[in-house]
Amino acid sequence: MDFDPQQLAFYPKDPGVYIMKSQTQEILYIGKAKNIKTRLLQYFQHQDTRVQLPHLLRQVAFIETIVTLTEKEALLLERRLIQQHKPKYNILLKDDKQFISLLITKEMWPKVELVRYRHRPPKEGKVFGPYPHAHAARKAYEHLIKLYPLRQCSNTEFNHRTRPCILYDMQRCLGPCRNLCTQKEYQALVDGACRFLEGKDPSLLEDLHKEMEQASASMHYERAQTLYETIQHLTEIIAAQKTAFKIGIKCDVLGIAKQGHWLSLTLLSFQTKDLIQQYPYFLDTFEPCLLDGLITSFLLQHYTTHPIPSKLFVPLLLPDSKNLQEIFQIPICLPKKEEHKELLSMANRNAEAFLHQSSRRREEQEQALLQLQELLSLSRYPARIECLDTSHLAGSHPVAALVSFLEGIKDPKQQRLFQIRHSEQSEDYNSMKEALERHLTRAKQEETLPDLLILDGGKGQLHLAMDLVSKLDIVTIDLIALAKEKSRHDRGLTQEKVYKPDSFKPYLLPPRSAALFLLQSIRDEAHRSALRYHKKRRQKKLTESELDKVPGIGAAKKKKILAHFKSVRRLREATLEEIASTPGISSKDAKTLFTTFHRRSQP
Fold it and tell me: How far, in Å, CA of 599 to CA of 603, rounded?
């Protein structure tokens, strides 16, 4: 099931990280963006010309997002997620991505320079960054050396100067190379540069504003424009410093978003300065008056299987907060500090983004199900759909897989896998009949019959299911068979033939309809499940041994026996004493092995 680019209309326009996943939830690619929606649209509008992109997009089925407060935070989060998950399409980023920062060196006459590093920042100075991209770092560097004329020459040039360079004449350097300033004067510039990069000099903005106004009044417009750009950049630095993950503790932040009877909960988990995990949850039916109890229930369930933080910030006061604090032994409170409020705002924005994506997806799935019911004249709304497929290799290791979809979403708990027991020839009809009979018999007893049952095949498979349903006296389900139409040279795409019990001729659904797309995705999922199970059965058969059937001999003992005798043939020829001498094998196990293989070797 490919990702539908139309879903991007409901993605956030905030900075953050996007995670591309396959149908099996494998993480394929992780990226950051200043505007998530715009960046993702570039992928599907072919504005990105990287060679690996077509291969990536063919595998993408889901795209998850994590909204951050700034682009810098998106950069840091992207780096951590790539190091953690190592996606295969992030090859260049995984080991080779370097992060650009500004470094004020630690020496008698410090200088500022651009540095790149992979994992840990350099220790020989004070590092500011990393910056989202090289352009932002260079801009910061240019503004810095205009405001604070620190030296820019290398140490070799500095030590061999006989006279100051042209930067001294341009008033862009104090000339420390020829002792034209005192160390105290120079250190004052260094301290000012540090405050500038940290955004901790409030008087600097006021002075720059006054100087810009004076330059503008004197009609020095170029100077005024330069000062304006410096003010803008400094304002961005101050904002970024305020909203960075300056929490210093391991805390979780719970965000919520509501829309009608839909609710989204998003829990952001922070460890010191890093966002380490996002846990999004979606509910399609909830009563607003029960929100407090729902959040309490969610927290109790979540922290049963996840680590408890040092502190939990929630969006509203909970009546049960005292009890919860006693249970978890942590403070649970509303955020009061500005930086904590920013984190709550970030969690709420993530919850809102996830709500829009999930609710839109639910609406599309509901429309597809209604369209399916109308086009095929089904007797009931297909809330639960099941699909059965079989697999074998030249008749060997026959298996069947049944997948279940509830409201258009896969329900893994209801998936069933079958080993075909009584089919000697492993023919598809016999395999399907056995698996279908076993499943329907059980489902009827447990009252878990589906609304719609899909069979991968044609009229033969449909008639087989009809006879079986009649035999079991089941009248509450709709049956269809889905078969691919043979390729034709006058058509770019093949259509799907849908067979129904009430018609001899197949139905041909509109090739671009949501109903057809839903049927194909369910059938393809059943096909994948059957193939995976068949592959697993074959691999298990390849590693099977006669030792697996010996009572009391598990995997560990089996490994020791084969390591000692090298093969089952040598074990069969061994005496009882030789078997008993095997390390890790008791005398009881030795007697069992000897008796078992001696009995088998007798004519």
Answer: 9
